[in-house]
Amino acid sequence: MRWTVLTLICCTWTAHGLIRIPLRRMLSVRTQLRASNRLEVFMRDHQPDVFNRRYAQCYPPGIPSLRLGKSSERLYNFMDAQYYGLISLGTPEQNFTVVFDTGSSDLWVPSSYCVSEACGMHHKFKAFESSTFNHDGRMFGIHYGKGHMLGIMGREVLKIGPLTVQNQEFGESVYEPGYVFVMAKFDGVLGLAYPSLAEELGTPVFDSIMNQKSVDQPIFSFYLSKSKMPRDPEGELLLGGMDEALYSGPINWNPVTLKSYWQIKMSSIQVQGALTFCPHGCQAIIDTGTSLIIGPTRDILALQQLIGATPTSIGEYLLDCARLSSLPQVTIMLNGVEYVLTAESYVRREMMGDHEICFSGFQAEDLHSSTDPLWILGDVFLSDYYSIYDRGQDRVGFAKARHTRYTTLDAEMDR
């Protein structure tokens, strides 16, 4: 019943010409693995590049994204993705649940010809049932850090809510790696980053939307809700602009520093005035495809100590749930503006049986960068701050997200 309601909502235009795509907040793969007591084994067996080195001789030649070491350059972290939405491909329409991911640029869904266990758990695209399918013939491969995906290319009619995209390039996966995709609640991924990141799959979806002049403005925005109220949206992707009913205060803009990921300059990160990280500036990737804030190992380990987090045997960090109110604030400085995260924002709460466990929302990973140290700002940050992605002026905007029921009428009254 909930799916039916969301589907109806996504097929309407707002008064301001925006296209609203409802997002559902689901259990992450990491949470599911932990609940089934498989997380420790998974983390031990799926370190970056382990799969790559073991099976490198099996990959088709000429697919650059599968070469050794590529995992340090591609920042897919769907173990912690939580917000998914609905799209369709083909005629008649075939529905798929996808991650709308600003950390990648490719669109792919499972193929009916897929041979891996993961595909058996998800909706699969049946090209032979679609009258508008065009076979491309190219192969693609994507390295996901903890395994690889292989597939074939095609072109098809794509629908996102009321929006129709003609002749969209996409990938049909015929092999998907391991438990990440077996346990994932999403079928595929729709990337929203720049074209230069789409090494294999051609024109990204939002570029197709802009080329076909399907939106008034070359802008999209994300609202990721914290609300537990059943009638409140769990999240929304808005194509063509932004909705001021979903945020308060001014929008603070940050120029994109590298047109690949949505990458911007981060001035510093400070923990309650005690210690400042990257005081001379860092690069930050804004990534709706992960829930965490990820940074260099040296900095993250020091940050974990400052917030009183204790390491586990598999690299996670635990916090005392009873002490959250006394934990320090973490302040991220972007283009002269302070973005404050309290413990309620950067701590992930999970239930294990009858007990609540609190995990740090910070994760260490040394990511390849030719310039400054590289960080990723995922949903820990983006659920507090409404984010706007402007391809027309190559900038990312942030404003304080509203997490109480707030209508367009309220916004008019505020003015």
TrEMBL record:
SUPFAM superfamilies: Acid proteases (SSF50630)
Top-level taxon of origin: Eukaryota
Transmembrane segments: none
Residues making up the signal peptide according to the UniProt record: 1-17
InterPro entries for the chain: Aspartic_peptidase_A1 (IPR001461), Aspartic_peptidase_AS (IPR001969), PEPTIDASE_A1 (IPR033121), Peptidase_aspartic_dom_sf (IPR021109)
Pfam families assigned to the protein according to its UniProt record, in alphabetical order: Asp
Keyword entries, A-Z: Aspartyl protease, Hydrolase, Protease, Signal
Span of domain Peptidase A1: 83-399
Family: Belongs to the peptidase A1 family.
Descriptive protein name: Cathepsin E-like isoform X1
